Amino acid sequence: MKFFLWWAIAAALLSGYGHEAWAADTAGDLFRMDPKSAWRIDAGAITYDKQADLYLAVGKVTITKEGKRIVADSIWFDQKNQRLFADGNVTMTAGPDVLSGDHMEMDMAAETGTISNGTVFLGDRHFYIIGDTIQKTGPDTYTADRVSFSSCEPGNPDWQITGQDLRLTVEGYGSLRHAALWARSMPVLYTPYLFFPVKIKRQTGFLVPRVSYSDRKWEEIEQPFYWVISDSADMTFYAHHMGRRGEKLGFEYRQVMDATSRTTLMFDFLEDRKANTDPGQDWAYTHDRWLRPNNDRYWLRMKHDHGLGPGLSAKLDIDLVSDQDYLLEFESGYTGFDAADRYFEKVFGRDLDDADNPVRTSIFNLQKNWTQNSLNAGVRWDDDVIKRRWADEDDTVQRLPVVSFDANKQKLGATPLFYELNSEYLYGYTEDSLRGHRADMHPRIALPGRFKNFFSFEPSVGFRETVWRMDRDAGANDTDHTQSRELFDLRADLSSELYRVFDVNPETGKRACHTIVPRLEYEYVPHKNQDDYPRFTDAADVIEKQNTVTWSVTNLLTVKEWRGAAPSAADALETAEAASPPLVRDALYREVVRLKVSQSYDINEAKEDDPAQWASPDQRRPFSPVAVELDARPATSVRLDGDGLWCPYTGEWQAYNGEVALSDARGDKFSGGYRYRQGVSESVYGKAALEVNEAFLLYGEYERNIFSGTDILVQTGVVYRASCWSVDVNYTDEPGDRTYTVMINLYGLGEFGTDISGADVEQYP
């Protein structure tokens, strides 16, 4: 294991600067000045040699120019040749960056300079570069005789890298001879020659490797290589060595065309040395009853957005995987499911199907939006990994294509009526069963009205026409037969709104508004026998009969606050006397509590007397469970969420979930909750992070299945943070796996570490 740790450190030194600049971005600005811009000199005494055009300033000299500031005991300035000499306690600052030393020479025309016993501090990264003699030999080139760099304070740093004969070029590369990594006074790594990229812009080069050890895979090394293709495109290649399983290779391609067009394509492939032909094998997964006999394993995922003009866009999602275990086995890591899922959600606003879902969905969609209407056209392919490999017949329905046109509620001409429309056409295709067309159109007409300020009432009627033309039915070979279905439905919505405003703090103008919204809804769909219609396995195939009344009461508490201080009486009077516009402050509205309670009554079930349905009338339960939803934000640091279903017949809760999240300004965080489904599941979970002090952070996570009496997850960890490095020690216990993790972070250099005895663990956020 020590070998892997040393390998990670060495690779981080050789490649850890990845696609960041480490010194030259601001060091170039420190030495770069426009000779034509003016100087400002403050000193105890200033003399001028007119014949030589030479200024001499002594006694706490301070020079400012172009946002830079030079301080020294004495400064000579040769204006004719644009050369500057500073001596004694020299310090130059440019923004957050500081250059200091005993003596400094600058040739502003040639953009060169030398500083003796120099120290460069890069403020944005809190990084120090120290050298006996640091020279800027050209507009973008630097050298140093003996040099060290670290993010620790100079003197006795906790870690540093030392070497000789430093040479580097901005937007090029750097080299260092006899490079060594030191932990305090102990050398831990040496290399006779160190070569690294020094780029301000994105750069091609190796990134920080990832090293771990697990029971399923043994030793693991992941090494990424980053390739800058152009200003708008780049690519990362991944080599993932697993001692027990083989070599997994992959790549990630990214391109941004414009503000509305971007694409990302990721692909991995593994020729696995171990197949899953026996559930007892220690690399097997038992989340389902299916084995994994294949050795060729892969995962292709892609998302693409393309703007085609005002209101017109195209989207492409691809998700294809070799087997049902792949995404569970490779959840973490550079190319793991978790990283890809977070990336797609952040960049495209669309995440992936869950890792344990064997059905992977790929979609291509064209969308055109107008003010009130929208048109969507595309194809959808659902790949059921288990059926593809094991089923005798694959009845997964593919939509090739699917087209929908929807019209939002809008005025119908000059009438008091409103209309809306939902419509869809698809061609459903399966490998082994039905194939055919389906068109579904569902317009609705509504007549909204309001009785003074007491209540609103909106009745509506909808008509639904569905037509099937089948090329092949399930289990039959007859073709070209057409069926249709006509249905109407009725709705009525009666609601009111009661509210009251309270002055919480008259001095600041803070107010609270409590709103109560009672609502009564009625929905009716007549019964129609639909047994003979084709089934494309979605909501349009079978329309269930409905005759329900639903009541609900929603409570809202909203707080109105003001950004900025309230004007005093004197300010208000002065404003009024000057006849100027009144003082204006921005109003902030914050929803503090939302509580909704609802229940439905099924008239059909209340009237049902079919002995096949009920052994006795007492078994009928027309009243649905009472649904409760709570969303509370009493303070910015407190969040409460909950929902539940209460059965009025048994007087018991059928299901409920509750969660609380707390945080404070120091950074302490806690979230926890309880989940319950009667007779099915019951679990409790919690997650916490405690900032003990500036140096120590304690964190943990726990989840227990109370229903089965087993722990789902136990995780504890501690982070120690020094001024220039940190270490994270973590223990995780999951069913079938125990993991010990040590991660070391050298600020400004990169993070490396090892996962020991178990599966990989995502670091605590």
Can you put this structure into words, describing what you see?
This protein is 8% helix and 60% strand. It has 765 residues and is mainly beta. The strands form 2 sheets. The protein has a 30-stranded antiparallel β-sheet that branches. It is globular and about 110 Å long. Residues 1-28, 575-580 and 751-765 have low confidence and may be disordered.
C-alpha end-to-end distance: 26 Å
Specify Rg, calculated over alpha carbons.
35 Å
Average pLDDT, all residues: 84
Unreliably modeled segments: 1-28, 575-580, 751-765
Number of continuous helical runs: 7
Q: How many strands appear in the DSSP assignment?
A: 42
What structural class results from the helix and strand content?
Answer: mainly beta
Strand content: over 45%
Report the sheet with the most strands, covering strand number, pairing sense and barrel closure. 30 strands, antiparallel
Helix content: under 10%
* Form type: globular
Question: Can you give keywords for this protein?
Answer:
mainly beta; 8% helix; disordered C terminus; 765 residues; 7 helices; twelve-stranded antiparallel beta sheet
